Amino acid sequence: MLTGGPLDVLTGDYLAELTMLILGRDRLKNPDLGYAKTFLRQLEEGLGLAHERGVRLVTNAGGLNPAGLADAVRALAAKVGVPVSVAHVEGDDLTARENGALTANAYLGGAGITACLRAGADVVVTGRVTDAALVSGPAAWWFDWAPEDHDRLAGAVVAGHVLECGTQATGGNYSFFTAHDVRRPGFPLAEISSDGSAVITKHPGTGGVVSAGTVTAQLLYETQGVRYLGPDVTARLDTVRLGDDGADRVRISGVRGEQPPPTLKVGVTRIGGWRNEVVFVLTGLDIEAKADLVRSQLAETLEDVADVAWTLARIDHADADTEETASALLRLVVRDPSPDRVGRALTSAAVELALGSYPGFHVTTPPGPAQPYGVFASTFAPATEVPHTAVLPDGTHLPIPAPPPEPAAFSAPPAFEARGSGGGAPEGVGGAAPAGSGAEPRETVRAPLGALAGARSGDKGGDANVGVWTESAPAWHWLRDTLTVDRFQALLPETRGLAVQRHELPNLRALNFTVTGILGDGVASGHRFDPQAKALGEWLRARHLDIPVDLLPPAQDPAPAPQPAQGPAPVPAPEGTGP
What is the pLDDT of residue 42? Predict the structure, then answer.
């Protein structure tokens, strides 16, 4: 980014829910740690270049110890002979308030970053701030925005949300990746204007692509509802408008902002207990019987274990021409407060089956010792009780006041829908006109949803979100009417029995679904095969339903869906099962 073209501010996002747990364990071993050490290694190479080009650096790599990282940056600057001023932001650490927590950190806004830059800092280190604050804070400094400039701040927050996951905005993890060369996508950048609008682009000559689709995908990522609540402003995602500004340039405009909520989100991590895992390989015939045998042989060993989860992944093929494609995987995951119950007692019992269980017995890797796992939860704290502080380059501690507690002046009701359709996705759904509508029935073909729609999904603690969008208005109207909560749950049976909310974003031709509790205690607990729900959207795109032929591009007309090798078809959800 420093060598590819002009920059004013270079940001770095190093924190995630899992990262906070890892840094918390680092801090237990050494109180002087708790920050992202990789940042220092990168800085050793780039600090001089940033200083030479007048680029300010803003990063949340301070993690649990921003003051410690700020000192380390000063030491590094002295070592390499680069005269830079360093400031940091603190006050997010609320661990002492949460009994038994490993970490507890409030998500601060960008105002502390703004204050540090106004004081002349070349490098600003923070702890837990919102990912978007790394962009909105510098934007407020550059344009001298006030806390009441809600629309401008909201525009910068949206730009920051697009940038926060790097190359996810330039073709990485993109549903329509086959349409572009995304082998080495360049990093995105935002050209922010004084009114809060922005152009998302990348340095000339870098790989990947910036398109309305890549930007839409990232806008839908890990958001919950049309109101994107933040500590500086509430950004209305249903007001975002995207426009073509040239090759690899997408303009974001029209973003409306509202008063931020009076509370801050607090991410809390704890050591949840101990876990272990064994994956048995089942090859050839009688897969179900082999799985039943293993389960029965280990039943006595697992009687007292607190949490036992068996998953049989039928990845085997009949009459397969390789041993691997003739095999299924039986995965056992165990969790318990005691390491003894899921340690050697379990691994020994599993290994000792080797000569007395199903034919062809083997496991993917030798079972290991029990490992501690973490759990993530979020709570809230009044913003006025969180000591948000900017520590300026001269050492001055500048308190950052919380926004005044005013009632939110919501300009319009959120585009929210939680109704159920009662329709599932059986044969014949999606193409026929409603009874009595007078419209002609449409010809349909059984096809995967992904032939028409893109998706991106991710995690928020124990919840998952799935954003789905289309590239044309007719496809959007069909998607809006077809992909209701009930049909979503019918296509993804693992979401049945969970609370699912649906939000409409017409300007983006998108729907956003929030699935509560599907990830259990979060990524660090290893609850699911896909613990961060990164592929949940791609599973949805792979599910088949009846799509009007006139909506499908001619080159993508799919063949009829093959019948599954085994198992019943999805059962439509009964009427009224939506929350």
Answer: 93
Contacts of 154 (CB under 8 A, 6+ apart): 196, 233, 234, 235, 236, 255, 256, 257, 258
Structure tokens at 278: 């064994």
Please say whether the dihedral angle defined by the alpha carbons of residues 406, 412, 418 and 424, taken in this order, is positive or negative: negative
C-alpha 57/C-alpha 482 separation (Å) is 46
pLDDT tens across 169-187, in order? 999 999 999 999 999 999 9
Give the Cα separation of 470 and 325 in Å (integer).
35
Q: Which residues on neighbouring strands pair with residue 398, listed in sequence order?
A: 390
Position 357, amino acid: S
SS3 474: helix
pLDDT tens digits, one per residue of 472-486: 999 999 999 999 999
Pairing of strands 389-391, 453-460: unpaired
Quick one: which H or E segment has residue 472? Answer: none
Which tens digit of pLDDT belongs to each residue from 235-246?
A: 999 999 999 999
Q: Is 239 helix (H, G, I), strand (E, B) or coil?
A: helix
Over the Cα atoms of the chain, what is R_g? 26
The pTM of this model reads: 0.87
130 close to 109: Cβ distance less than 8 angstroms: yes
* Confidence (pLDDT) at 494: 93
Q: Residue 498: how many CB atoms within 10 A of its CB?
A: 16
Q: Is residue 117 classed exposed, middle or buried when 0-12, 13-18 and 19+ CB atoms within 10 A define those classes?
A: buried
Positive or negative: CA dihedral 333, 495, 548, 427: positive
Q: How many CB atoms lie within 10 A of CB 398?
A: 16
Over residues 369-395, the pLDDT tens digits come to 999 988 888 999 999 999 999 999 999
| Dist. CA 356–CA 352, nearest whole Å | 8
Q: Which helix (H) or strand (E) holds 467?
A: strand 463-470
Q: Where are the alpha helices (DSSP H) in 54-192?
A: 66-80, 111-118, 133-143, 150-163
Rounded Cα distance between 58 and 1, Å, is 14
What average pLDDT is seen over the chain?
Answer: 89
Joined together, the tokens standing for residue 47 give: 């600090």
Pairing of strands 56-59, 103-106: unpaired
Q: Can you read off the two tokens belonging to residue 176?
A: 């329509």
Task: Name residue, tokens 């729609």.
Answer: 453
Residue 439: pLDDT band (50, 70, 90) is low
343 vs 427, residue with greater confidence? 343
Residue 190 is given by DSSP the state E
pLDDT given for residue 570 in this prediction: 36
433, pLDDT greater than 70: no
- pLDDT of 8 reads 98
φ, ψ for residue 536 (rounded to 5)? -60, -40
Q: Reduced to 3 states, what is the DSSP secondary structure of residue 101?
A: coil
Residue 44 is inside which H or E element, if any?
A: helix 37-53
Pair type for strands 307-313 and 444-448: unpaired
